Amino acid sequence: MTEEYKDGPFGISRRHFVKASTALAATTFFYNPSARADGTGTPATGDTSPADERVVPTCSTFDCGGKCDIRAHVAGGVVTRITTLADDELDPEMPIMRACVRGRGYRKFVYHPDRLKYPMKRVGKRGEGKFERISWDEATTLIADNLKRITAKYGPASRYVHVGTAVSGGTFSGDSMVRRLLNLTGGYLQYYHSVSMGNTAAATPYTYGVAASGSSLDTLSETPLVILWGHNTTETIFGHSNHYYQKMKQNGTRFIVIDPRYSDTVSSLADQWIPLRPSTDNALMDAMMYVIISENLHDKAFIERYTLGFDEASMPEGVPANESLVAYLMGAKDGIKKTPEWAEPITHVPAQTIRQLARDYATTKPAALIQGWGPQRHNCGERTARGSTILATITGNVGVKGGWAAGYGGDASRKFTTGPEMPDNPVKEKISVMNWVQAADDASKVTPQDGLTGAESLTSNIRILFSHAGNYLANQNPDINQTVRVLEDESKIEFIVASDLFLTPSAKYADLLLPETSFMERWNIGETWGTASYLMLSEKLIDAPFETRTDYDWLREVAAKLGVEPQFSLGRDEKQWIEQIWEATRKSMSDENLPTFEALQVQRHHLFKSKPNIAFEDNIRDPQNHPFATPSGKIEIFSKRLYDMQHPEIPALSHYVPAHEGPEDALAEKYPLQLITWKGKNRANSTQYANPWLQEVQTQKLWINPLDAEKRGIAQGDSVRIHNDRGVSLIPAEVTQRIMPGVVALQAGAWWQPDANGVDHGGCANVLSSSRITALAKGNSHQTMLVEVAKA
Ligand SMILES: Nc1nc2c(c(=O)[nH]1)N[C@H]1C(S)=C(S)[C@@H](COP(=O)(O)OP(=O)(O)OC[C@H]3O[C@@H](n4cnc5c(=O)[nH]c(N)nc54)[C@H](O)[C@@H]3O)O[C@H]1N2
Ligand SMILES: Nc1nc2c(c(=O)[nH]1)N[C@H]1C(S)=C(S)[C@@H](COP(=O)(O)OP(=O)(O)OC[C@H]3O[C@@H](n4cnc5c(=O)[nH]c(N)nc54)[C@H](O)[C@@H]3O)O[C@H]1N2
Ligand code: SF4
Ligand SMILES: [Mo]
């Protein structure tokens, strides 16, 4: 099979074409139920499956929000088709997810003619994208030699493994195995903070003592009102969300969606859409709280029993007067009551809408305010994330069935595998993910104030960098133009290794570019997001094409050249690692129902049919024995820990503070439009960008409101120039009322395509986004940027 594969695995070579079409033609009249791998697959209507076809339930291991059961139809060593599980296979109690449009297009990703085929080393200047083919032996020798040289010269803290989320949906990846290898040979400089939801994770413990934890969605079956706050689950999937929300909708739950964009979630679920100016969420929240409290709609008994800092009578020791929530809302210090009329010019939400929203939320019992991660990928993200916890608290929606405690955090009862054994990292200092460009440029500038932990200063710049399954050297990192200036300087980072399936805008900056297999060409276990609690086998379906290899495979060779192969691999091949991880998971969960690895290969997935899980239920039911993990043991509306930081952007109450580059910034005079991005249905971040089927699903365009377009003489489809001091992007305009006036939007993840003048023609928002670090979390603010748009 391998031989044939080398000839043309991409569905375009003549040999493959003949082979596949013959197989299909031969079996047009067959219906072969036994072809299903395990008896669970259902052939689609009008089935024309070839006789030797296996229909394998499997999943990708992308970081896409789902972990869907796709059915790969495999015949003659080729995946000929992808379907998904049928309606009658859904378990109504805990359904497995069904493939989205991206999943149904996976073949066009795997069999794409542009896939990287051979290891290559850079020949031009770094970033030029000129490479020449080399052998795997030369590639692994280059890595081993550079690792030895750089480690001897600069120490292990000069070694860095970059963001690479495309394999994070699986238990085993090159990304984790390179960390294992580096730990075995001295360690590496680690980063913390998740660019996905790190601002939420850092902020919500100040309310509850632990990071935001959602409940399981089955607890919402009788909730009459759900507010989706910057949460676009129709596109982003988030585990089982759509299944539950659609069921609730049918049962009469009312949905309100708060988003500057009329998202697919608005069109598929919402009874009411409330657009607001990005980064002003806290002003809306403050005004909602003002209405709730001034109209006496707050849950007094709940507040009294469980919380700290609501009014002056419930403040912690050592804080002067007028710092409580009520004092702030009533303007005790600044003389400004935080009324809906105060919030209207800030948010652009009409005062009457705010008033009604507040009343609806406070008087519907229970109600769930569920916040997505879009609003917290802002410069004010921590405040927004904490703001929603305070609204939930004053309305008594925490720890009760049908309520919701915190911005979306996933269900704490969700189960994970153990992952591969990871030796300790001897390098103790860590940087925030936002510090890496600085650490590559001039490490002496990375200070504890900016996010360095575990040391007062760094011992070295980043000198060798591994980027596995990430497009984060350029494309996905904020402020690309500033970033690539550092990357292009070959005296800074001395050696960059990238592993991908495509020559992405980031891969162009590699010194060594390695072609990995796709998820269809290796074994793994898929792990779900959100409240979808199951594990699923991701089977090796087809042979690796050309000279592609799994990262683990070539890392073994590097380990051998470093003299640590036995310790690194423990003698296991990839499948043996998966088996070992599965068995270790069975032991650690002590779950007798978890099948053996052998049984898993028949069963395919394991559902954790756990009881509905309500976040903080114990703390509310029995606070005596289950105090919150905060210093006071209570829900902290006012956080003394935040107060003591005495930082204007870290208010103890999480109230509205205008964001840098928000609509109130002086820069808005020069750049009057706020640009936001969203995660669209046709790719996971930038993964599958080149997939031709998915490019047909949605074209990259700038969403602009007719009012803003008209002012600028822009008509539908006109080419427009989006610009600010950081960069310029030139793409067509989509003039649409789906975006509110004053705001423009680009789908995230489009490939950066700079011309000779540095003007992007791909519609990549990160030529315009800012690398400003959030105050508390030291995290990202990809979403907060001001721009101007002109007809090109
Ligand atoms: N289809 C698809 N699904 C995905 C991904 C993908 O790329 N494509 N990526 C996956 C990943 S890695 C992640 S981290 C998650 C991310 O999931 P999210 O972070 O929740 O997704 P986003 O689309 O960034 O943001 C959600 C919504 O927030 C809105 N928004 C932006 N700014 C503001 C604001 O200031 N206030 C309010 N109220 N709303 C605002 C956006 O318009 C958007 O509709 O999704 C995952 N799922
Ligand atoms: N403007 C803006 N920027 C953002 C965001 C935003 O909302 N707006 N979101 C941020 C968020 S939440 C995230 S998570 C990051 C995501 O940023 P990244 O982690 O960089 O994720 P992707 O862009 O999907 O890039 C993954 C790469 O891995 C490759 N790949 C896929 N499968 C495999 C495999 O099996 N092996 C190997 N070796 N490679 C593979 C894909 O081809 C792709 O090039 O982006 C961040 N950047
Ligand atoms: S891309 Fe994600 S959501 Fe879509 S089918 Fe695959 S696993 Fe499911
Ligand atoms: Mo993410």
From TrEMBL:
Enumerate the UniProt keywords alphabetically: Iron, Iron-sulfur, Metal-binding, Molybdenum, Oxidoreductase, Signal
Q: Does the keyword Oxidoreductase apply?
A: yes
Signal peptide span per the entry?
none
Q: Which cofactor does it need?
A: Mo-bis(molybdopterin guanine dinucleotide)
Q: Which InterPro entries match?
A: Anaer_DMSO_reductase, Asp_de-COase-like_dom_sf, MoPterin_dinucl-bd_dom, Mopterin_OxRdtase, Mopterin_OxRdtase_4Fe-4S_dom, Mopterin_OxRdtase_prok_CS, Prok_Mopterin_Oxidored, TAT_signal
Q: Would I find Iron-sulfur among this entry's keywords? A: yes
List residues of the 4Fe-4S Mo/W bis-MGD-type domain. 53-114
| Cited Gene3D superfamilies | 2.40.40.20, 3.40.50.12440, 3.40.50.740, Dimethylsulfoxide Reductase, domain 2
Q: Cross-referenced PANTHER family, in alphabetical order?
A: DIMETHYL SULFOXIDE REDUCTASE DMSA (PTHR43742:SF3), TRIMETHYLAMINE-N-OXIDE REDUCTASE (PTHR43742)
* NCBIfam families linked: dmsA_ynfE
Tell me the protein family, please. Belongs to the prokaryotic molybdopterin-containing oxidoreductase family.
- Name of the protein in question: DMSO/selenate family reductase complex A subunit
Say which species the protein is native to.
Buttiauxella selenatireducens
